[in-house]
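subagent[fold] <- orchestrator: predict structure for attached chain, return tokens only, no commentary.
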Amino acid sequence: MSKPVLVGDVGGTKIRLALASSSLGHVQLHNIKVYDDPTIPSFEDAIEDYLSSSDVKPKSALFALAGPIADDGSIKLTNRTWPRVVPSVIQSRFLIDSATIVNDFAAMARAIPEIPNDSFETVIESHFSPEGPILVTGPGTGHGVSTLIQSVTGGWHVMTGEGGHSAFAPRNMREAAIRDVIARTYNYVSVEMIVSGRWLMPVYEAICELERVTPEDLSPQNILDRADAGDKVCVEVCKFRANALMGAVGDAALITGAHAGVVLTGGVAERMVKWLRTTEASDRFLERGPMSPFLAHTPVSVLMHDEAPLIGAAALALE
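subagent[fold] -> orchestrator:
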């Protein structure tokens, strides 16, 4: 068994920390701890709490954080108000020989080959096994995008970007009207602002305005429950977001040539499986005009595995 490595996954809502090791080529996680307290003042404070309760003092660490990595390896998280996270500061404070920061969707993508098939829910099935890149993308608090490519030697390479912040492209007049209501306040309307958890209420409120009804203070689960019961506004919220997500995912798959498959991740995608499987949503992914055959055999699935980014961080750290 390899020496333990401290790994972490930090999104806009939760922090997960664990010790990772490798045995016979398989990643193993130990002592997983989840923090969901929004008042934690910094990432370093979470690390401090975790290490204070552990008898193991790791000498290396790799953390997957939601945001673009700067040239010096530091990161300012997109959906948190924390100070910038700097690897050298972590090394000095916790006497760690090496600390590395990667984009959270680099870890999410790298986890895919390590996770069993029964952790995936099929959205669009394919009876073919095409070779090529795998697009790993999805809405949680924000919306991440990455591409996983297998090398000729059998290893894996991950490419990340900030595709969630690409512009939302309406497909009809109603979608354009919803976009325009949101744009009055925020000007630029990205895909993330339409499909992610953080932006659910602006979408709901925009549809309420167009329907001339007063918005209520609803939780995401309230909206899903009301949609299941046939509430007109909540049904449109779910359909609109599912269609928008599948449309954006189809765009990204077309751009990256993701013949080997698309994996949707994140808590929002997990809760939207029913709506993503509708014919209307599937058509948003598949209909590409003259290029529709390009995606005709690309499978789409939803990953149902809370520890995936930790597994991916461990795989990256232990490679």
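orchestrator: received. Logging for downstream: Residues 126-298 form a domain with the Hexokinase; domain 1 fold (CATH 3.40.367.20). The chain has twelve helices and eleven strands.
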